[in-house]
Every structure is written in C-alpha cells, then in structure tokens.
Amino acid sequence: MYDYNDLRRDCCALCRSGAECGSIGRTRFGAHIVCFHVGPKDAPQMIVQGGMHAREWVTSIVVVRQAKAMLREKLPVGIYFLPMTNPDGATLAQHGAECFPNADELVRINGGSRDFSMWKANALGADINCNFDARWGRGKGNLRSPAPASYIGSSPESEAETSALARLTRKVRPVMTVSYHALGREIYYEFGQKGAALARDAAIARAAGKFLGYRVVSGDLGSAGGYKDWCVEKFGITALTVEIISDRHAHPLSEKDLAGEEKNVWLPLLLAESAAEMCGG
C-alpha cells in the first residue's frame, strides 16, 4: 500500500528533482497536507488533488506520478498537486484506529469493527467531500453525525483538511481544478452552471473523457458539499471529478488495480493546454 510515509519520501525526491514542495496545513492529528507545485508561478494555475476519501488512497499514487511526469514538461500553466488531501483517513484505512488517540471512538463510529478498509471520512468521522460550502447539508445521503462516510461536519469547512484546501484555492484562484476519486471510470463536471460556462465545462469534460476512455456524466446527481461543487459555485471555474478504475473492481483497492490507468498520468498536460487557451495563452 502507499501510505503517508511513502508520500513523505516522494516529497523529498520531488524536491530534489525541482518541484516546489510544502504543506498547506495540518490535520487535527498533526499530519501535513502535502503539496507540490510544478510549472510557472506567473501564469494561470490549476489544482489537482487526490486522496480525499480514505479508502481511495490509490488516487494518491496517480497524483504523485502526475507531478513527477509534469516536472519533465514545459507547462503553459502552473499546477498544484495535492496527492493525499486526507492523510489521517488514509492512515486509518490502511493501519487502523490504534494510530490515533481517539481509537475507541473511531471503533464505535465504525460499528464496533476494527477493520477500517472501507472508511471514507477523516479521523474524526467527517467526510471531507461533504464539508465544503456548496449546498452544504443538502446532498443525497448526507448524515448529521460522525460516520465512516457522508457526515457533513458541524459546519462548512469545519474540518482542518477542508479548510486548508479551501484556503489554498482562495489564495491561488485557479482556472481549473481536478479531483481524483475511485471507482467507475467516469468524469463529473456539472453543478448548476448554465450557458457559456456549462458549454465550456462540458467540452473540457468530453475532451478528458475521450482521452481517458471514460464516460462523461451530465447532471450533479444530488451532489452537495464537494470540492468540485464548491469550485463551480463559488468561482465559476471548470472543476472535474475523475473517478478512476473500472467498477468491475471493488473496494478495498490496491495498487495493482491501477493497471490500465496509465493515461491519467498525462491528463494534467491535456488540461493545462485547455486552461491556457481559456486564458488566452
């Protein structure tokens, strides 16, 4: 498995290779939310993030591979890569509750089980991708108390992970964001945008879908509180959710399930060119 310690080692390697490496904040239990920047700083920016859901830690591998590949490219825009937005959740899913001081509470939330391999939330039982201020609390299946998945948190951006990513996004003002999840081999792009914005985002999603061989899904399907949703609603930018790996597979996933997903390494380059065109580059 690819865990937080592996990410820290990759951070050092990427720094030595020329990436700008850092942390956008810490979780409640002290883990850094690691960020890499590749490409020009004096150009439009993109944000690519993965590892938001604990059991989907394989997406962190994809985002690290993307950062390594983009270091070798002359990019028309800058890209911030966040491979593991929910490091505590990944640690919990991979190594269990004993890694945390609230282990007994986590086991209780998990229905008495010490198997956290299907867990999606952070180490407080809040689902990061339900915690953004975009129709917060009105999503299909949202929960109002800590749970392995779908708990919205006490308020928008109540979670350290959400707050850190939102703070980076407000600072950077990206022209495009990409969020990696698993499963389904699908791309989502819609959250209430209309007219020219809807046409723009649909065209970019279709181009990405054609490149990857993924299905592009129209409509928000009752989504709310997600990062993609928030970026579309608050900033009016293109924001994609990319669900990797065929749903012929099942959670819990492993690195071997990434076989056939190699094209995702190059998706940021395709999208960077689209972003530059949108900005007149």
Summarize, please.
With 281 residues, this protein is of the alpha/beta class. It contains 8 helices and 8 strands, in the order H-E-E-E-H-E-H-H-H-E-E-H-E-H-E-H.
Describe this structure in words.
- The chain is of the alpha/beta class.
- 34% of the residues lie in helices and 16% in strands.
- It has eight helices and eight strands, in the order αβββαβαααββαβαβα.
- Strands 1-2-4-3-5-8-6-7 form an eight-stranded mixed beta sheet, with helices on both faces.
- A hairpin with a 5-residue loop joins strand 1 and strand 2.
- Helix 6 runs antiparallel to helix 8.
- The longest helix has 18 residues.
- The chain starts with a helix and ends with a helix.
Indicate the topology.
Blueprint: H1 4-17, E1 20-26, E2 32-38, E3 45-49, H2 58-70, E4 78-82, H3 87-95, H4 103-109, H5 160-172, E5 176-182, E6 186-188, H6 195-212, E7 215-217, H7 227-235, E8 238-244, H8 267-278
Parallel strand pairs: 3-4, 3-5, 5-8, 6-7
Antiparallel strand pairs: 1-2, 2-4, 6-8
